[in-house]
């Protein structure tokens, strides 16, 4: 956060200003750019089986091959999202978004001329995955930068509009295939992906639109300013400098560990390999984020959700459903998704009070129960109802993932954390996807594959609450300790 001091008359303390995100203004156009980006890159994901069914049958691809394609697609997304933070060191967000749009357009338009499974893997897997990985990470980052107080509201609105497009997508694909044929439909969808270039034009840097707002200098700030020790550049290499002005919150956060931050010890020289690694990977996130359920949970659930939506159309066709019923099921899936996004928009003010992670876990539980209900029923109407509930669960898994990340890490680490999460998700897809496809081929049963995916949902529903309880107890003990040490420090300062 940038702060600016201005002296006014005899006010020696000066009037302080800080630059904050606009929480509106051009941010609304940035939200529109995110809607365009999400819609062109993800809205047709649920129509994968419809879009490529003719090609899959023409080249006789097995279930293992289809899930392998999903794995390639996810790992491409993951690697692209992971390296987005490093790529931003050599180019701006808009330039990187433009490059990603070109790559994604090559992938969507390339499916029109594909004739072999290898071309299918390259266009629908690698190119589309790379483009989506970068665009998704950048879009979430930019919305996160422009909004603070309205972040949940705007992210819910963006995802709601994306969900509306996703609900219409199956009907659109069915109409386009009947009107223009399979190839013509893919060409039309590829043309829609070119709208990403409009989204790129709207992605202006947040620094251009920051608001300058005054803030009061309270007693705590005055105390820190009075106690600030002037840095001595000549002695800095040998003598640690005590700077209390770097203290973000003196009261209630002072521990032995935080006090160590005030002593600026000259950094040791790092090897070239270590500097390269740290330029790509934020090592501080490895223990605090990567090895927690806030990372493993969304990664595992999004992987299971992606595998399921790819395989379920073939499952319905094996039950002798016609294309109209399959399209209806996917439409209701989109309707449940959309209705939940609207609900999230309405209750956005209370979502943080309820707990983003708590809501996410409830969504995962609905995902598991709705899939069990679908497998246990033979009635078309009942299955359609469960498809609607699956859409509700999909919304929680997809929409809340960026909010779970932003709630778990500092704003400046958001891009890196999203990259790590998506890399983990892609790595899991490469392993779990082919394994699920192999289970289906060996057992000749979609039910066995789906029960395996349900077990993954159940695992998260059990482990995540346990982790939250453990962290909550540690937090209470830490707060009590910090309160005591803070009171002792204040006595010493007096």
From TrEMBL:
Chief place where the protein resides: membrane
Gene Ontology MF, one: monocarboxylic acid transmembrane transporter activity
Superkingdom, taxonomy of origin: Eukaryota
Gene Ontology CC: membrane
Chain ranges of the Major facilitator superfamily (MFS) profile domain: 26-476
Record has Transmembrane helix as a keyword: yes
Leader sequence residues: none
Lipid bilayer topology: Multi-pass membrane protein
InterPro entries with a match to the protein in the record: MFS, MFS_dom, MFS_trans_sf, Proton-linked_MCT
Spans through the membrane: 25-52, 64-84, 96-114, 120-140, 152-173, 185-203, 289-311, 326-347, 359-376, 382-405, 417-437, 449-470
Keywords, alphabetical: Membrane, Transmembrane, Transmembrane helix
Compartments where located: Membrane
Protein name: Monocarboxylate transporter 1-like
Annotated source species: Spodoptera frugiperda (Fall armyworm)
Lineage: Eukaryota, Metazoa, Ecdysozoa, Arthropoda, Hexapoda
């Amino acid at each position: 956060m940038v702060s600016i001091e201005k002296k006014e008359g005899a006010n020696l303390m000066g009037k302080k200003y800080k630059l904050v995100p606009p929480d509106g203004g051009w941010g609304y156009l940035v939200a529109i750019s995110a809607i365009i980006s999400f819609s062109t890159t993800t809205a047709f994901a649920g129509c994968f089986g419809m879009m490529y069914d003719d090609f899959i049958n023409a080249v006789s691809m097995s279930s293992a091959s289809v899930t392998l394609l999903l794995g390639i697609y996810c790992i491409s997304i993951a690697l692209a999202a992971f390296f987005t933070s490093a790529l931003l060191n050599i180019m701006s967000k808009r330039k990187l978004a433009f490059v990603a749009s070109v790559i994604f357009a090559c992938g969507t338009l390339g499916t029109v001329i594909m004739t072999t499974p290898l071309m299918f893997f390259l266009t629908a897997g690698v190119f589309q995955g790379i483009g989506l990985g970068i665009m998704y990470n950048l879009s979430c980052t930019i919305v996160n930068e422009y909004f603070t107080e309205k972040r949940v509201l705007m992210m819910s609105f963006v995802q709601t509009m994306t969900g509306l497009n996703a609900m219409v997508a199956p009907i659109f694909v069915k109409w386009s295939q009947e009107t223009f044929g399979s190839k013509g439909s893919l060409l039309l969808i590829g043309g829609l992906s070119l709208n990403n270039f409009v989204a790129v034009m709207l992605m202006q840097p947040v620094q251009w639109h920051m608001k300058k707002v005054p803030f009061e200098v309270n007693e705590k700030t005055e105390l820190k300013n009075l106690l600030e020790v002037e840095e001595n550049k000549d002695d800095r290499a040998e003598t640690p400098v005590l700077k209390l002005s770097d203290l973000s919150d003196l009261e209630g956060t002072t521990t032995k560990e935080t006090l160590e931050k005030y002593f600026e010890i000259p950094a040791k020289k790092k090897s070239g390999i270590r500097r390269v690694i740290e330029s790509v990977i934020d090592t501080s996130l490895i223990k605090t984020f990567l090895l927690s359920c806030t990372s493993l949970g969304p990664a595992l659930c999004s992987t299971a959700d992606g595998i399921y939506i790819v395989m379920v159309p073939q499952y319905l066709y094996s039950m002798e459903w016609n294309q109209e019923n399959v399209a209806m099921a996917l439409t209701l899936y989109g309707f449940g998704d959309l209705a939940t996004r609207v609900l999230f928009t309405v209750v956005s003010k209370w979502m943080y009070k309820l707990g983003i992670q708590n809501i996410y876990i409830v969504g995962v539980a609905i995902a598991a129960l709705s899939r069990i209900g679908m497998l246990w029923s033979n009635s078309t109407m009942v299955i359609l109802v469960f498809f609607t509930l699956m859409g509700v669960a999909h919304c929680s898994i997809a929409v809340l993932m960026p909010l779970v990340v932003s709630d778990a890490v500092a704003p400046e680490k958001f891009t890196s954390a999203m990259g790590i999460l998506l890399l983990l998700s892609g790595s899991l897809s490469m392993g779990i996807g082919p394994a699920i496809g192999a289970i289906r081929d060996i057992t000749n049963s979609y039910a066995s594959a789906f029960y395996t995916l349900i077990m993954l949902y159940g695992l998260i529903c059990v482990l995540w609450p346990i982790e939250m309880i453990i962290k909550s107890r540690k937090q209470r003990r830490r707060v009590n300790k910090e309160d005591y040490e803070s009171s002792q420090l204040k006595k010493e300062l007096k």
